[in-house]
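Our platform keeps sequence and structure together, in a single record for each protein. Such a record has a labelled line for the sequence and another for the backbone structure tokens. This encoding replaces a full spatial description with a residue-level series of whole-number codes. Below, we set out a record of this kind in full and without editing:
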Amino acid sequence: MNAVRAQQARCAALGFWPGPIDGIDGPRTRAAYAAALAAQKAKGLPFRHPTGITRIHWHWTGGGHEPNATDLKAYHALIDGAGKVRWPVDPTTSRSHTLNANSGAIGLSICAMAGAKERPFTWGKAPITAQQVSTLVRETARLCRVYDIPLSRWSVLSHAEIQPSLGVTQKNKWDITVLPGMSGPADPITVGDRLREMVRCELFALS
């Protein structure tokens, strides 16, 4: 994910539409950046958090309810079957959780979905639990507040939303397109919106 595309995503998340998230530094992108920069400055904030963190990417591991050695090396944080969050590394540590879109993104993953299949759909041996989703929502809200991450489709999104929302090609990723209580996978942005609404409620409760 090049610097211009990341800047465009940040502008969109802040409410200043740069045009297509395409990595091209055109006049609309430059105007959106100038407006977003001024708006942040008026609040006494930089364009992005000093750590460089601007996004949260939701995942599932495709494994069991306990993180394995591979999971611990791939993600910043993992939510086990009991709903406990584990942070093997600091959020600023480099991790490879999203193809060509890791920079500035926290990889937050649910430990689940071992043996799951998208079509025909089967939950597999370790389906996502309601407790894991609750923890995902709560931890996302906390991170949004700590790192000044707006709750938007361009800054808080699932792995399955990366390609349609940020334009970065992925390899048939379908996490997270199904949640407890659903009969099967649905449109990734629709499911993402459902999760973001839950985070919005959590943020409201924290305010």
